Amino acid sequence: MSNFIHRWLNPHCSECITEKHDNSICHSCEVLQMELERLRQENNRLLEYILQKPEPEQRINTEELKMVMPKSLPWKARKQMLENEDREKAKLIKQQSIQELEQQLGVNNEPIG
Question: Phi-psi bin for 34: left (phi > 0), alpha (psi -120 to 50), beta?
Fold first, then answer.
């Protein structure tokens, strides 16, 4: 009751004006203001990120990288790899045996001409 009388007798009191202003702001407006502020901060961060100088890319030495083989290969692929390895081994053995025979026979591999 005393509050009513105070407002009636002093309608332009500073306390009454701030109280009236505080009551006039609704909850949804406060939420919207907070959301607007959050969006402004996010936009500022994005703008700073876009405007900053890019760092130079670090190059990776691809010569040192090895081919990664799967742990389980299908039989066809494994068979083909083994056959290729055997062919290479056979070529090396053939070349070595030819060189050994040439050395035993005393034949030189010098081109004629």
Answer: alpha
Task: Record the tokens describing residue 95, joined without a space.
Answer: 């070349």
H/E run at residue 27: helix 27-51
Task: Please give the Cα distance from 21 to 96 (Å, whole number).
Answer: 101
Cα gap 91→88, rounded to integer Å: 5
Condensed to tens digits (0 to 9), the pLDDT of residues 72-82 reads 888 898 899 99
Task: Give the C-alpha separation, 46 to 43, whole Å.
Answer: 5
Taking phi first (over 0 means left), then psi (-120 to 50 degrees means alpha), and beta for anything else, what does residue 106 get? left
CB 67 within 8 Å of CB 74: no
Domain boundaries, the chain: 2-51, 73-113
Would the pTM of this model clear 0.85, i.e. be above it? no
